[in-house]
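Action item from last meeting closed. Structure (126 res):
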């Protein structure tokens, strides 16, 4: 059973930065895609950034140039470095894993991911 555990959320002011971490355990596939999603109250869960095992990445337009997805193979950890945070970035952030490479057009689609973490809250105040 794959386990994903997020950490690093918190409260920051507009313009601040945070780095989220997601520890991935019991996941030994050689080809995969890992992603960050977020869900604000009353809204659908949306894809933020994704990174697959061959190094290809995708970002939502709303976070390009501000967020960076990366991973440490040695630590089995996925990261999301967030800069220039805005109040509209406030949401619960979830880590997700898919057991395959995904086409660029599908990397931010919620339906493509079978494994999810419990989430970590990010709150940005003005």
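Sequence:
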């Amino acid at each position: 059973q794959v386990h994903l555990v997020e950490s690093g959320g918190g409260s920051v002011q507009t313009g601040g930065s945070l780095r989220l971490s997601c520890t991935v355990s019991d996941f030994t596939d050689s080809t995969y895609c890992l992603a960050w999603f977020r869900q604000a109250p009353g809204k659908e869960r949306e894809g933020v950034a994704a990174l697959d095992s061959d190094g290809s990445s995708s970002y939502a337009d709303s976070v390009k140039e501000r967020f960076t997805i990366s991973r440490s193979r040695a630590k089995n950890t996925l990261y999301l470095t967030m800069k220039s945070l805005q109040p509209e970035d406030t949401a619960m952030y979830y880590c997700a894993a898919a057991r395959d490479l995904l086409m660029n057009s599908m990397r931010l689609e919620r339906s493509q991911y079978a494994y999810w973490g419990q989430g970590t809250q990010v709150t940005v105040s003005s």
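Note appended to the action item: The radius of gyration is 13 Å.
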